[in-house]
Amino acid sequence: MALGWLQMARQSINSFKHDTTLFVGIRRSEVFCPMADDIKKNYFTTGQMRNALIQIEDQMVHSGWMPSVVLGINRGGCIPGVYLSHRINTPHEVLDVRLRDHTAKPNLTVLEKVFAFQKKILIIDDINDTGDTFQYIINNFGKGDGRIKFAALINNKPSKVKVDYQGYEIDKSTNPAWIVFPWEEWDK
User: Fold this and answer.
1) Three-state SS letters, the chain
2) How far, in whole angstroms, is CA 70 from its chain's centroid?
3) Are 182 and 48 in contact (CB under 8 A)?
4) Measured at the alpha carbon of residue 134, what is the angle toward residues 11 and 115, in degrees to the nearest 5?
5) Residue 185, in any domain of the structure
6) 42: which of 3, 49, 50, 73 is 20 to 30 A away, CA to CA?
7) What phi and psi values does residue 132 have, to the nearest 5 degrees?
8) Which of these, 64, 53, 34, lies nearest to 181 by C-alpha position?
9) Is residue 28 part of a domain?
10) Along the 188 residues of the chain, how does pLDDT read in single tens digits?
11) Residue 91, domain CATH
12) What is the number of structural domains in the chain?
């Protein structure tokens, strides 16, 4: 049973298990394209982000895998990456792979550097929508023989990449909407 956005925001972040199936959200793949008026917006709260990060941490603990470093994908994964790194007391760095809102070539230098020195790397983003960002990393760097794992606050079921850890799961093919994260709209 899916919880509504307001209900999930009010849910205690200290409870052990949260319902992580939400049927909301799409993310446009167009670059600098104005949003159509008919696209529904759903606002993801800071409380929901914390709930998602607790779920991701719980999944890592139960899988017996914990990272040596957290890489937050620029820009959407930066804030969740910093929060998670503080929660699990692990260093954080920024990985500059911006496919949606940027025209510069993605830079995997940070990944190359930490891969050379760290045993386990968690790469986190706010949403795994189409899978393009994670797929770019896999195509251009690989998964490091299991040393690299992927996480997203929200995972879209039809995505071409299956993340290792997720906070919430959506299916944009059945309920299209745009998910607005707290760091994306200053006025909300």
Assistant:
1) CCCCHHHHHHCCCCCCCCCCECCCCECCCCCCCCCCCCCCEEECCHHHHHHHHHHHHHHHHHHCCCCCEEEEECCCCHHHHHHHHHHCCCCEEEEECCCCCCCCCCECHHHHHHHHHCCCEEEEEEEECCCHHHHHHHHHCCCHHHCEEEEEEEEECCCCCCCCEEEEEECCCCCCCEEECCCCCCCC
2) 12
3) no
4) 105
5) no
6) 73
7) -60, -45
8) 53
9) yes
10) 343 443 333 333 333 334 444 434 433 333 333 455 567 888 899 999 999 999 999 999 999 999 999 999 988 999 999 999 999 999 999 998 876 665 677 778 888 888 888 679 999 999 999 999 999 899 988 887 889 999 999 999 999 999 999 999 999 999 888 899 998 887 75
11) 3.40.50.2020
12) 1
Amino acid identity at 79:
I
pTM tops 0.90: no
73: amino acid identity, one letter: I
